[in-house]
Amino acid sequence: MSKFKFSVGPWNVHSGADSYGPATRDEISFEEKIKRFAEIGFSAIQFHDDDAVPGMNDLTEEEIKAEARKVKALLDKYGLKAEFVAPRLWMDPHTIDGGYMSTRKEDREFAMWRSFRSIDIARELGCDLIVLWLAREGTLCAESKSPVWATKQLVSAIDEMLDYDPTIRICIEPKPNEPIDRSICGTMGHVLAVSAATKDPKRVGGNLESAHAMLAGLDPAHEIGFAMAFDKLFTVHLNDQNGIKFDQDKSFGVENLRVAFNQVRVLLENGYGKNGEYVGLDVKAMRTTTNEDSYKHLENSLNIFKALEEKAERFDYALRDELVAKRDFEGLEMYTMRLLMGLE
């Protein structure tokens, strides 16, 4: 029995279309997805604002809230919670040069409107967490905007959100690149610095995605641990990545099993989940996956996580301390590998 609760987003089951090719699977309705998520063993759903309220740009504030209440009824039907809402600020003509950091005032105002509506949606869905994936917040042209100005714009935007709702929490999901060329706030260290600069740092933290850390050449377990040392890890997005290239969102643990093990171990060691946090997955099926297997990558990721959790529970800390005292790190590495290979 896992000690953790798990969450997933509806975008993690999709048609297989990407930048280089068309769809390879049928679309699945939102209700069918969340019904299946509940059956698989998820406890909560992650939302973009327009996952919950499609076409929201054409709706009034009250219409947006009314649509969100319909989604809340659907979650209740299947015994699921909403984990967070994230304003989708990278799929709109207003945000081609960023949202909070756009060089155009009207676009920055649009970004704030979507952020405030995301907060409204979150309250209707019964959650208090807003995730900011700063997809286009940076520069395409190095000379186009000052990184000093851009960073201050981000802090100002977060302060406005904190003022809009005194109970909401803001969670930044860092990524060093893609789709933007030069990111602002690309690592968990950047997140903590931004948090400290806001008017209410206790309400601003981070969401670590495994693949994003790997894209920066960093160890995701260390990024997780860094955030946890400051009580700033509000959620996680676990997946895997084959090298420093585009963000692949591969099933958790399929490329880097030892790296995955240490992510599970640092969460377990430090009581992640005791404040209600979820272990979130952000994984995508391979394009070759059939309609019938549309959820297999989620099932695989959960099974790998739970298997690694069981191994982390059995990790011999007395032996670890003995080997560390002798600086026998070769011995510690071999013990870890034997544990992962089922030889311990």
Q: Sheet bearing the most strands, described?
A: 8 strands, parallel
Distance between the termini: 21 Å
Second-tier CATH architecture: Alpha-Beta Barrel
Count of discrete alpha- or pi-helical segments spanning 4 or more residues? 12
Q: Which fold does the CATH topology refer to? A: TIM Barrel
Number of domains: 1
Strand content: 5-15%
Widest β-sheet, arrangement of strands? 3-2-1-10-9-8-6-4
Backbone structural class: alpha/beta
Mean pLDDT: 97
What's the SSE blueprint?
Layout: E1 6-8, H1 30-40, E2 44-48, H2 49-52, H3 61-77, E3 81-86, H4 105-125, E4 129-133, E5 138-139, H5 147-164, E6 169-173, E7 182-183, H6 188-197, E8 204-209, H7 210-215, H8 220-229, E9 233-238, H9 257-269, E10 279-281, H10 296-314, H11 317-325, H12 329-340
Parallel strand pairs: 1-2, 1-10, 2-3, 4-6, 6-8, 8-9, 9-10
Antiparallel strand pairs: 5-7
Helix pairs in contact: 3-4, 4-5, 8-9, 9-10
Description:
- With 344 residues, the protein is an alpha/beta fold.
- The relative contact order is 0.11.
- It contains twelve helices and ten strands.
- It has a single domain (6-314), classed as Divalent-metal-dependent TIM barrel enzymes (TIM Barrel).
- The strands form two sheets. It has an eight-stranded parallel β-sheet. A two-stranded antiparallel ribbon has the order 5-7.
- It is globular.
